[in-house]
Amino acid sequence: MLTLKLKFNFDIFTLFWMNILKISQEKEIQNQIIKNSIKYKNWMRADLPIGYQLRMGSLKDSSLLDKFMYLTYQELFPNQHDFSHLTETVSKYFSVNTPLWLVQRAGKPLSSEINDLTVACLWMGSAIDQVMGERYGHIFLIFVLPEHRQQGIGTNLIKVAENWAKARGDRQIGLQVFTQNQPALNLYRRLGFQPQSLSMIKSFYRNLNS
Predict the structure, then answer these.
(1) Alpha-carbon span 112 to 63, nearest angstrom
(2) For the segment 68-117, what is each residue's pLDDT rounded down to a tens digit?
(3) Who contacts 210 (Cβ-Cβ below 8 Å, separation ≥6)?
(4) Is the pLDDT of residue 142 over 50?
């Protein structure tokens, strides 16, 4: 009985300190987000069109990032209906080291709880140049809702991405784009991006439409 009681007390003690550690880690993450916001405040101001404003996202905006990931792939691959794996991607890679910026319609509270005000996003991360061995800023995702395009929002988000990479000391910035996304290809080429490699895939499944 004494052994069971000691074990029970030990388990409670362990659980208590695990919760304390978790709270401490969460506070540390939030403090890092605040530091990043202050650090990037001076250069993250985008020259967005009148009626729009930019804010830096937090880990609480993961559902918004999920939404934009889904919309991106749904637009490019309309015949594909299951994109549940994208939520896992966000869960695995979204952190304080992979910052998120959101464009919202101006004149409204900048709150992540008001999802319908958010019209565009930029998700950044890092990659390694396999030729030079150097880290560089990598655009994980950039998306603008169709009804808000052709106004310069995407161009300004690219500038934010470039400023973020330069502030870290990166000497280049990169991204991946699907070959069928011609509007995006045109934009990236106009802004100075050039192809460096070609990703090739061979499907083992028969094309039912052929």
Answers:
(1) 9
(2) 999 999 999 999 989 999 999 999 999 999 999 999 998 755 544 446 78
(3) none
(4) yes
Domain 44-190 architecture: 3-Layer(aba) Sandwich (3.40)
Task: Classify 112 as helix, strand or coil.
Answer: coil
Q: Write the DSSP symbol of residue 130.
A: T
pLDDT tens per residue, range 38-73? 555 555 566 899 999 999 999 999 999 999 999 999
Residue positions counted in the chain: 210
User: How high is the mean pLDDT of the chain?
Assistant: 82
Give, in degrees to the nearest 5, the angle at Cα 164 between 62 and 36. 60
Give the start-to-end residue ranges of the domains of the chain.
1-29, 44-190
CA distance 99 to 5: 47
Helices and strands (H, E) in the chain, number of each type: 5, 5
Residue 127: partners with Cβ closer than 8 Å, 6 or more residues away: 135, 136, 137, 138, 174
